[in-house]
Structures are given as structure tokens and as C-alpha cells.
Design brief:
Layout: H1 2-29, H2 42-96, H3 101-120, H4 127-137, H5 146-157, H6 165-185, H7 197-206, H8 209-218, H9 240-265, H10 287-315, H11 319-339, H12 348-357, H13 363-382, H14 390-408, H15 412-428, H16 431-438, H17 447-459
Helix pairs in contact: 2-7, 2-9, 3-5, 3-11, 6-7, 7-8, 7-9, 8-9, 8-16, 10-11, 10-13, 10-15, 10-17, 11-13, 12-14, 13-14, 14-15, 15-16, 15-17, 16-17
Length: 473
Amino acid sequence: MEERSKGKPNQQGRSRRGQRGQSGQRGQSGRQADPRPYIRDVSRESQGALDVATVTIGMVALALAVGFAVGLAVFCVMNLSTWLTALLWDGVGGALSAPWFPLAACTLGGAVIGLWTWWSNDRVRPLEDVMAEFKATGSYRVNGAAKPVVSFLLPLVFGGSVGFEAGLTGLIAAGCCWIRDCLKAAGLRAGAVADVTIAASMAAIFGTPLAGIVAGAESSPGDVADKLEKPDVNDYNMRRGAKAVLYTAAAFGAFGGIALSSHFVGAPSGLPRFDAVTASYAELLWAVPCMAVAYVMSLLYHGSARLSKFASSRLGDGLPGVVGAPVIAGAIMGACACALPYVLFPGEAQSEELMATWTTWTATVLVATGFAKAVITPMCLNMGWMGGSFFPSIFAGVAAGYGLAALTGADPMLMVTVTATAYLAGVVRKPLLVLAILFLCFPVEGVVWMGIAAVVGAALPVPRVLLAPEVEG
């Protein structure tokens, strides 16, 4: 009895020691604290630091290369769109020389876009959706290779009042995600390839690295959790500081790629470059009515977006709705273009033309063009003519600003700078991104007025009744 009673504590002691050993093993697998905190593996720490430094240098070089390739791709696709658009509107339209050609071309374009959307089950997604999906998942996919290109080109070629930034960003982001996965399958550590594409795309499309850096930071996936569709794609979970370096490298690489292409080919790209503000102090008060006009335009934009979204939903998702919505939008846009031709197209080339010819236009036509484009663009975006809103919104503000200058006699650059900045901020509601985009459009001398206009335009409230359902709240 005494031996058995003495044996019990011994067995319990061995049991407790076994439990401690097992818990120690579990602690190692669960990455708990090392039971020997006084021991440091100096060799592993130094090797890890060297590995991180090497990867960082490699990733910066890779970001520069990817950005440069993105710049070349953006330049090629933009010029393909420009060539096809000129073929239709200058070639066919010029040969017919008929005042009703915009109505016919836009209505036909709506039918083609609707039938293509129905057959391909593919459409361009808004830039905000591309950035949101990439931020949430760390990846982006499109429906094949050829279909998204056709979906991207059709609204632009037929004169849609939409920008090309959404389609290009989606195509390039999907392509870089595919390249990243291929490199990973080959055993290469290239997880940051896709992470810099938003920055590179925006820098190349808008022609300014700052826009790419800001947009890349906004669309960056989370720092802590790995949110990729394939959990083992990213080999390094970089913090925001390191990612900012990659965004900067990619943005400047993209800017260099498109600038080099433009230099050799001689084709312009990106936003127009306006002159500096030279207004006197007495004229600076004209900034107030400019922001008021921009606010009214932003209300028209949001109201048109809600109305057109409602109309599109009422038409349904069947064949009649998918085809009918873009046909109706095309007919309205084409009829408007018969009187105001500059409501068509993204607006970057039209801004260049308006800069040289605005004095030959009446103030009424210029202001009406800006207001009409503020209504037509969201109608296109919500009724099948998919694309971006940045370029047409910038042009709408430019046209209205020149109209106000013709009406008041004030400094045209002050009116254009304030109106365009305040209106774009009212549409996008992101003043920092607006400033980043427009810094290369307007000289730095107007930064104070741009900053005030961007903050005021984004801060002015939009009535809830005018907001589309998914924007509310």
C-alpha cells in the first residue's frame, strides 16, 4: 500500500513533465514565446536582414520594369483607340458630312455595345470597382484576353462620353496578376508585381507619377492579413512604407515608358497642360462663383447617375434591357451632340482644342457644353457605355470655366482651374487624388486655388435623394 501510494506521485510527476513537453512542442508550432528568451540566433537574424534588403532592391527594380512596361502598354492601347475613333468619325463621318451623323453613329454604337455585352457577358468595370476589388483580395481577374479589349474599345470608338482609365487599369491589373502567378509557379519571388500595377496604370494614364502614388496607396491590400486568392502568391508581407517605395518606383517607371514612347512617336498623351493663373487680387473673388457653378454641375452629375441607374434597372437584365439601355443612351447623347459636338469622347483631346479655340465660342455654348457633359457622362456609365469618369469630368469643368471667363471677362486660367478642380472633386469626393491628377494639368502656381477648390468641392454636401443607392451613407 505504501509503495503504491508512493508510486502515484511519481506517475503524476512523470505525467506533468510529459504534459509540459507536449505543450512546449505545441508552443513551437503555434509560434508562442520561446521558453529560452535569453538565446538569440544571430546568424538567422543577419541572414533575414540581408534577405529582406536583397528582396527590397530587387522589388524596386522589378517595380520600375513593370511600370515601364505598363507605360508602353497604355500608350499603345490609347493610340489604337485614337486611330479607330478617327477612322470612324473623321473617315466615315467626314465623307458623309451630315449633321445627323452623331445621332446615327451613337445610336448604332449603342446597339453594337448592347449586343456585344449580351453575347460576351463582359463589360468594363468602373475604376473604383477595380481598385476596391484589388484592395480587398490582392488580385483582379477579367474574362479572357480579347473580350475585355473589345469591351474597352467599343464605347470609346463610338464617341462615348467616358474615359479610358477604368478599362486600361482593369486590363493591366489583370495582366500583371497573371504574370505574378506565372512567376510564382516558376519558383520566383514576385509577389509585389501586381501590387504596383494600380500605381503604374494611373501614372501612365494621367501622365503624372503623383496620381499613381496616391492611387496605389489607396488601393493597397491590407498589411497584416494575406488576402490573395492564392494564399502563397505573395512571399513578403511588406509594410506601407516599403509599398510606398514600390508605388513610387512603378509610377515613375510608367511615366518614363509613356514619355519615351511619346517622344519617339510624337503623339501626345495624358492631360492637357494649361497656363498659369495670372489673375489680379481683385479678380480672385471670381473663384466663388466658379465653385458655385461647379457645385451645381456636381449635383447634375449625381442626379443623372441616380436617374439613369433607375432607368437601366427598370429595363431589366434580359436581352431587351441589355441592348435597349445603351441604345437609348446613345440616341440621347447623339442628339445632344448634333448641337453640342464636344459632349462626345473622353475629353483629353477636346481640352487641347478648346484651349486654342475657346475665344471663338460663345459663353452660352461653352457653359451648356459643360453642363450637358455633366449629365451625359453618368448616363453613359449607368446605361451600358462603360468607362471612366475622370477625363470627361475634367473636360466638363474646363468647358464651363472657359464659358465663365467669356461671360465675365475674368482671367480664364483662374476660372478654368477653380471650376475644373471643384467639379472633379465634387464627382470623385477624393480631394487628394484630384490634386494629384491635376497637378500636371495646371501649373504649381495655382496650387492654393486648386487646394481650396478641391476641399470645397469634395466637402459640399450632395442631397441624399440625388445619390445612387450604393453611394448613400
